[in-house]
Amino acid sequence: MGETGGKCQDAVKYFRLSEIEEQNTFKSTWIIINNNVYDVTKFLEEHPGGEEVLREQGGGNATESFEDVGHSSDAREMASSMLIGELHPEDRDKITRPVESLVTPINDQSSWWSNWLFPILAATIVTLLYRMYIGENQ
User: Fold this and answer.
1) CB neighbours of 47 closer than 8 A, spacing ≥ 6?
2) Interacting residues of 54 by C-beta distance below 8 A, sequence separation 6+
3) How far apart are CA 89 and CA 114, in angstroms?
4) Are strands 36-39 and 30-33 parallel, antiparallel or unpaired?
5) Residue 47, burial from CB neighbour count under 10 angstroms (0-12, 13-18, 19+)
6) Distance of CA 133 to CAs 92, 119, 121, 124, Å?
7) Cys-Cys crosslink for 57: which of 6, 62, 80, 134, Cβ 3.0 to 4.6 Å?
8) In the chain, what is the greatest distance between 2 CA atoms, to the nearest angstrom?
């Protein structure tokens, strides 16, 4: 399990994506943050956001979720104590990235005529129809 990338004592331990994905159980939970692999199993019950947050990310890439929350420097330091290695370089392009949307967003800034003209025209038409209806009944 895991490969060592070098011969020095502080050599980086690489884990294949398949190995990390297998570590998403109640006995063991690993996550990937910025291509680093963390064993968060012992931290599950202590996590301020609840263990469900970590379990949802277990066995996969938690980089976006981790960064979006805006963790403190203390949290980042605590995470470093759970670091067990890195994602194998050959698997780094395999981790899921946010899906890019093919839909072009519509510009929310409408012109004045669509905000005022349509309601005024609708009110005018309703008023004319009402007057014609009342005029026929008299």
Assistant:
1) 40, 53, 54
2) 29, 31, 40, 43, 44, 47, 62
3) 53
4) antiparallel
5) middle
6) 72, 21, 18, 14
7) 62
8) 102
Residues 85, 13 contacting (CB under 8 angstroms) = yes
Cβ(96)–Cβ(60) below 8 Å: yes
10-residue averages of pLDDT along the chain (138 residues): 52 89 86 90 82 83 83 84 91 69 58 77 94 82
Q: What is the pTM of this model?
A: 0.61
35 burial via Cβ count (<10 Å: 0-12, 13-18, 19+):
middle
Contact between residue 87 and residue 95 where contact means Cβ atoms under 8 Å apart: yes
29 near 60, Cβ under 8 Å?
no
Could you identify the residue written with the tokens 């690489």? 14
Neighbours of 131 (CB within 10 A): 10
Residue type at 119 in one-letter notation: P
Q: Across the strands, what pairs with 36? A: 33, 86
Which residues have C-beta within 8 Å of that of residue 99, sequence separation ≥ 6?
A: none
